């Protein structure tokens, strides 16, 4: 083998979007973009809950973040969990172009999304724990 590792197209550190204008200390969340093909969102969600190492038990049936039972809602929870674990590095909120930073709290009902401050620091997010 050549020793070259293929990175899935949904790897979160590939950030081709425009920089986010935020004041230092502003709370930030990473959520799924609307209007995207379900196949793209599902692939990114599978990455976050699989290789990305996110604990997605909160979006399973009967758990606090299962409702609303939509792919966009579940992907938003998983993307944000990865983003917050990566200390809010902007590069960790992309997921192949399916995610975006917001400063509007996406929490609803009994589902609370973790929040943090977005960091414009360049570099790579912390590696996911196996």
How is this structure best described in words?
By secondary structure, the chain is an alpha+beta fold. Helices cover 21% and strands 9% of the residues. The protein contains two helices and three strands, in the order E-H-H-E-E. The protein has helices at residues 38-49, 71-85, and strands spanning 27-32, 99-102, 116-117. Helix 1 packs parallel to helix 2 (71-85). 32% of the residues are buried.
Write out key terms for the chains shown:
3 strands; 21% helix; 130 residues
Name the assembly state. Answer: single chain
Proportion in β-strands: 5-15%
| Count of alpha/pi helices | 2
Task: Give the number of DSSP strands.
Answer: 3
Q: Give the radius of gyration.
A: 14 Å
SSE order: EHHEE
- The pLDDT mean sits at 80
Shape: globular
- Measured between the Cα atoms of the first and last residue, the distance is 23 Å
Number of domains: 1
Portion in helices? 10-25%
Biggest sheet, in brief?
Answer: 3 strands, antiparallel
Lateral arrangement of strands in the main beta sheet? 2-1-3
Low-confidence stretches: 1-20, 121-130
Determine the structural class based on helices, strands and strand pairing. Answer: alpha+beta
Main location: membrane
Subcellular location: Cell membrane
Organism: Genlisea aurea
Domain X8: 28-113
